Structures are given as C-alpha cells and as structure tokens.
Amino acid sequence: MSQIKVLLVGGPSYFPDEERIQFTASLTEKIKHRFEAGYEHFVHEGDFTTLDNEKLAVFQWTARTAIAE
Between β-strands 4-9 and 31-35, what pairing exists: parallel, antiparallel or unpaired? Predict the structure, then answer.
C-alpha cells in the first residue's frame, strides 16, 4: 500500500515544524498524531499545497485529546 505525504497545519503553536510532515494511507481517514501527553487530530478538507516542488495534501487540525491512562 502506498503512503501519501501530507502537511499538518493548525493546532498548538508549540507543535514542532519537524512533525508537520507525515504519511498516511488515505486522504479520507483522520490523522491522530501522538504529541506530548495527548493526540492532535487532523482531517483533509480537499486542500493541497506545494512544498519544495512536491504536491502535499493539507490536513487541518481539528482537536486535541488526552491520552487515557
């Protein structure tokens, strides 16, 4: 199964730039990215951007949830 390179946008200002490039198998599935003591949730709303001459799907931040203990 091929992986799609995506850009995560929005969310907390302290979310590191180096974690904003991710890979996913589907543009229709939400991305749940573990960060610090929680998960950042992102969805694809149809937008794309070009970064370093490469077309990336843009996933927009929607929410943060805590890790259940």
Answer: unpaired
